[in-house]
Amino acid sequence: MWRPVDCRVAFAMAARWMGVLATVLALMGAVTARALQVTDDRGLTVSFNQPPQRIVSLLPSLTETVCALGQCARLVGVDRNSDFPQSIKKLPQVGGGLDPNVEAIVALRPDLVLMATSSRVGERLQSLGIKVVALEPRSHADVRRVIETLGLVLGVPDAGRVWRVIDAAVTAAAQSLPANVKEMRVYFEVNSGPYAAGERSFIGETLTRLGAKNIVPASLGPFPMINPEYVVRANPDVIMVSAFGDVGLAARPGWAAMRAIQFKRVCVFTKAQSDVLVRPGPRMAEGARIMAQCLLDQAT
Q1: Which of 2, 48, 105, 182 could form a disulfide with 36 if both were Cys (CB 3.0 to 4.6 A apart)?
Q2: Residue 214 β-bridge partners
Q3: What is the CATH T-level fold of the domain 177-299, as seen in this structure?
Q4: What is the CATH number of domain 45-157?
């Protein structure tokens, strides 16, 4: 039979273990809360009690990344330029990515809006109680980070597999090219501003991995506005441009004398190809193959 003192000891030990258990549970709760926190490209931390189920995406590359992660079904609305995969075209459009229709977004009752950092509606949406994550990839490392961040937010295990497929495909595209292609000097015009894809951009990084020499150095930034005379002086071997930007290339002052124009080494991409090339997301592997084929065609 226990003496009274034994009961007091037993109660004390039980209380101590209950305290330990409460501490452990509190720590587990804290870890769980941290697991659903992400810091976006604005430097803001966004918390989630559970993975979002109703998503509006205002950037095509983010739309495509959500789908590449197998979560297309969670999208309830997109910007007007999001058009891949095909199923996305059935979703309500909420305007442009930079200045979407806020009322249309609210009407879709999203529990998350994905947007570029350059979009001007983030604060307004947050003031209405809508969670916003701004992500704007500009380099290969950014694309990998964005894929992994969205995988965390959406609760997708091993989201990094999407990047591994992209990375392997870019490597394969580079390995498919003969040695004589890999010294070609390239000018990639993103639009007729003219804005170019520099070495620091995801497009420039793909060109470098393919072995091409970008005439726009990293020091000028990812997508600098270029003086047309700069291109004339650089005298590239190959010009890559969209069908919209191809109009009047030879008529630009001094351009007719450039090597690429004289030898007709100009790759004019269709709108569909251009969409693939300028979106830093899951279709970068396809973009690498398009650029590799351009280099191969111009080398023959």
Answers
A1: 48
A2: 186
A3: Rossmann fold (3.40.50)
A4: 3.40.50.1980
